[in-house]
Design a protein that fits this description.
By secondary structure, the chain is mainly alpha-helical. It has helices at about 5-25, 35-40, and strands spanning about 80, 90.
């Protein structure tokens, strides 16, 4: 049986391990394929200017992954992690219907 004291020691370590595994997918993660079922459902394109404006009326010129709240890459990165497509990188010039203006 695990004591409360052991539990208190283990929880921070488990949390740190989880955080490390979540943030480690950055540069070596695969790039998102627009044909991926989730990407296709959300209308993801690697070039925002090619977004289907008829199907996704919420697209507007200037919206791209680089200025989306979901994009976790650094400014100037060509690709970066996205909260929507966990474990995969999206193009900073891309777009999908989950786009939300970065605060």
């Amino acid at each position: 049986m695990t004591s409360r004291r052991d539990f208190i020691r283990i929880v921070p370590l488990a949390g740190a391990a989880l955080l490390a595994s979540r943030t480690s997918f950055g540069a070596d993660a695969p790039k998102l394929d627009p044909k991926d079922p989730q990407a296709a459902a959300l209308g993801y394109v690697a070039d925002a200017t090619k977004a289907d404006k008829a199907k996704f009326a919420n697209y507007a010129a200037g919206h791209d992954c680089a200025n989306c709240h979901q994009f976790q890459g650094k400014a100037g990165d060509a690709f970066g992690p996205c909260l929507i497509f966990g474990g995969k990188q999206v193009s900073s010039h891309g777009w999908c219907s989950a786009w939300v203006k970065k605060a």
